Amino acid sequence: MSKPFCALWVNDHALEAWQMDTPGPVRAAAFAAGDHAAFGHWLARQPKGVRYRLLVDLADEGLQLETLPRARGADRRALIVRRFATHFPSSPITWMHGLGTQADGGRFERLVMHGLTRATALEAWLGAIRRSGARLEAICSATLLLGHFLPRALHLDTPVLLITQHRGGARLTKIADGCAQFSRLLPGIEPFSDSWRHEIERTRTYLATQHTEAGAPSRTIALVDAPERDRPQALSDGIEFVAATALLAPADPRPPASDTIPCAGIETALLRCLARAPARQNCRTRACPTTPRPSPRRLAALGCSAALAAAGLALAATRFAEAGTLDQAATALEAQSAAQRRETAALHARHGALAVPPELVLEMLARLEREQAAHTPTRPVFETVAAALEASPGVELVQLSWQRLRSTSASAPIAVELRLRLPSAPAATDDALDRLTDQLAGLGAQAVDSETGIRPASRGRDDIDGLVIARVRFQLDGSARR
């Protein structure tokens, strides 16, 4: 169910509130010019959720045709703002319509600008609406509405001069290219009088002298309630009379209630046009921002945008959490580095500079490590051989030799070779050699290997000639305690 709709019509003499939910518009209240406090109290008493649309019909309305150089983006907006500030510096409402480019290669574009030359009359009413918190969804001009709906209703494709007569007075409007391009309001003038016809002729003459691209109006149309009844007999045939109901779609099915003030045909047409006004006819305002009713498609787009925004925020929150953890780690690392730098500075302050370059000290340490790795320890060799010989009686040591298998590693195994003198009896020789190898294995020797032989007699070596000589080879762990 749609919310109630109320139309507010502002002219130079009063503000009228029209109830639009009835079959025909019904005037619900009227406030004289300057009675803004009473209007504010009336708004405060209205039900919540009422939709308001404001129809502006003031003599201070102005239309200006402008030709601007073709520009885009911020440059075009700046040009338009400067032109509005020139023609309507204090207007609380503004409206603009593009007429396309000129037939000169598209270097210039034509615009119609609408605004108020004096802002006092409308600003007070807008202030009352703003203070009451009422929902104002649109602000439209009667001139702009006629310029929009009349060409479409009558299928006009040539410039016309439109004459309308209502409570605000007679309004003369030039309509061309589907919009109003000139407008005059004649308040208090009697319709079809000599003054009325004189002003029409003056307006025709003025428009004929204006060299616009649309040209002068070729027809003059008077919008009246009943053409057959309202048209005087003595009036020139240069004016065409059209019923105001031509703008109604659809026409009211029944007249308004008898206990209310009815609305004339032209006023009904304007109010119905206000109710059907498209969003592009809505005037911009600085005094009281309007809140247009969004379409279902726009609501769906807003919902999708909100969902995407929520997903993006969730992803960003995750990334921000990871970034926060990294920031904490970086802060801790920086604190540790700062502590190390302070410690280094303190050491330098206590000990001063070295007597030799640091590179030479490092080279000497590396050389010392290499020499220690190449040195073969003697203590584990002597201790192992001595312990094995003491446990093997009858075996005498003739020669002992050892070397590290890989001189570049301090933990490389040590190869040991023994030359021994054994008893000459075969059984005693085998027993002594087995006992020695077992002792060496028990002391940690590895890869024990032995061989025996009878050394032949040689001249000058009586001490070992003719005896049994054994050669024993084994390996010791190079990382043993020295």
Give the topology:
Blueprint: E1 5-10, E2 14-19, E3 26-32, H1 36-45, E4 51-56, E5 61-69, H2 73-87, E6 93-101, E7 108-116, H3 120-132, E8 135-141, H4 142-154, E9 160-166, E10 169-176, E11 179-186, H5 194-209, E12 219-224, H6 227-230, E13 239-243, H7 265-275, E14 284-285, H8 296-351, H9 358-374, H10 379-390, E15 396-404, E16 414-422, H11 426-442, E17 446-454, E18 468-476
Parallel strand pairs: 1-4, 4-8, 9-12, 12-13
Antiparallel strand pairs: 1-2, 2-3, 5-7, 6-7, 6-14, 9-10, 10-11, 15-16, 16-18, 17-18
Helix pairs in contact: 1-3, 10-11
Mean pLDDT over the full residue set = 78
Shape: rod-shaped
Structural class: alpha+beta
Question: For the CA atoms, what is the radius of gyration?
Answer: 56 Å
Q: Major sheet, described briefly?
A: 5 strands, mixed
Helix content: 25-40%
* β-strand amount: 25-35%
In what order do the strands lie side by side in the largest sheet? 3-2-1-4-8
Q: What is the total tally of β strands?
A: 18
Head-to-tail CA distance between termini: 103 Å
DSSP summary: helix tally: 11
Oligomer classification: single chain
String of helices and strands: EEEHEEHEEHEHEEEHEHEHEHHHEEHEE
Poorly predicted sequence stretches spanning 5 or more consecutive residues: 250-263, 287-292, 456-466
What is the number of domains? Answer: 2
